[in-house]
Design a protein that fits this description.
It is a single chain. By secondary structure, the protein is an alpha+beta fold. It has twelve helices and twelve strands. A hairpin with a 2-residue loop joins strand 7 and strand 8. Helix 1 packs across helix 10 and helix 9 runs antiparallel to helix 10. The longest helix is centred in the first third of the chain and has 38 residues.
Length: about 375
């Protein structure tokens, strides 16, 4: 009985939230491809959430098969003239098509239509993230505090730079800060990097150079996270914690800003990996996403939606990478086609697809290894 209860708890606590979150992101991404493809006059054969055998589905009046498939780790839109779900052209089928059929195929569509259809998937993920953040800000608002220092940790970067309790943080590297979270967000992605913090003390402003220390912290769920810290703390007395509310239009602006922060933070993290400022063990795969989904679900629908928004931005950025088999790889091919005046040959595309697939599989294996390593300590 305990085993059954444990399995049920695992399914409801981790697998169900994971499948719900991932299916939402996949649906939005593929819907972007679908809508722009339909608008461009391209015939669509299938819209699938998930891979593998079909579990349930129906065929609409346009001949598109809408389905839910058995493996909930992605999805696809298959266009007329595609050999498979990766939008690889079926050259034999294209050669036997009439001119009218070719115009309705993906490979036979004009270049701008193909590019717009491919780009629409990642763009849909960014739009979904903005929409989720907008709703969260409009419904819940956010708790903010003034960027005033209540305590400086000994032997910290801030202490070495001369920061004192009561200092008001005005800007970092010339970027104005308005809340203590602005400081935390900026510093956390810049471990072991030189920054200049401008503080105001007794009406005087001064620039204090410092280097955030790369630190492993543990969140409330026991997950280890690597971030940069300068060693300052605020509190209710000096920070004046308060709930900030937003009108719908203000919430939209905050949603755009939050999405942009994730985009810039992601590129900053990649730069930190290349320079060695941060370790690559922060890269996670499906196991870590499932774990995070279950953990956020315990905090409520708002926390789970926030995770979905962050992951949606990540999926959008990942798909824009110039790697064959990803959307960014297709856009790269279209850029080459625009310059050459004709597409790459089928053999060159075949080689590129194989290299791209190997790169994606290698990344997946590495991320999964990180997940397993984190689970077993």
């Amino acid at each position: 009985m305990e085993a059954v209860t444990g399995i049920f708890g695992f399914l409801t606590g981790y697998i169900v939230p994971f499948v719900i979150v991932l299916s939402l992101l996949v649906f939005a991404h593929e819907m972007g491809h679908y809508l722009v493809g339909r608008w461009s006059g391209i015939r669509i054969l299938a819209f699938s959430v998930g891979f593998g055998p079909e579990i349930a589905g129906f065929t609409d009046r346009h001949g598109t098969r809408w389905k839910i498939s058995a493996i909930p780790l992605g999805g696809y839109v298959r266009f007329f003239g595609d050999e498979d779900a990766s939008s690889k052209p079926d050259t034999d089928k294209l050669a036997s098509m009439t001119e009218e059929e070719r115009e309705r195929s993906f490979a036979g569509a004009k270049l701008w239509k193909r590019a717009a259809t491919v780009a629409a998937g990642p763009i849909a993920n960014f739009i979904l993230a903005i929409a989720i953040f907008t709703v969260l800000f409009a419904v819940y608002g956010r708790t903010v505090s003034d960027p005033v220092v209540a305590e400086v940790k000994p032997d910290s970067a801030a202490a070495a730079a001369g920061v004192l309790p009561g200092d008001l943080l005005v800007s970092i590297d010339g970027t104005k800060v308005q809340t203590f979270d602005d400081v935390r967000r900026y510093v956390s992605i810049r471990p072991n990097q030189n920054i200049v913090v401008t503080v105001e003390r007794n009406g005087e402003k001064m620039d204090l150079p410092m280097v955030p220390q790369r630190t492993d912290i543990t969140d409330q769920f026991g997950n280890k996270i690597e971030i940069g810290l300068i060693g300052i703390v605020t509190n209710e007395e000096v920070g004046h914690f308060r709930l900030q509310t937003f009108t719908p239009l203000e919430a939209l602006g905050e949603g755009v800003n939050q999405t942009w922060h994730i985009v810039t933070g992601t590129f900053k993290y990649i730069g930190n990996l290349l320079t060695g400022s941060m370790k690559a063990d922060q890269l996670g795969g499906p196991i870590r996403v499932a774990q995070a989904s279950g953990q956020m679900a315990t905090l409520g629908i708002g926390a789970l939606l926030q995770l979905a928004a962050v992951l949606s931005v990540s999926i959008g950025l990942l798909n824009l990478m110039p790697v064959p088999v990803l959307d960014g790889g297709h856009l790269m091919f279209y850029a080459v086609e625009a310059v050459r005046g004709r597409p790459l040959g089928s053999s060159a595309q075949e080689i590129a697809f194989r290299i791209g697939l190997a790169m994606v599989l290698t990344l997946m294996v590495f991320a999964t290894w990180n997940d397993i390593s984190a689970l077993i300590g």
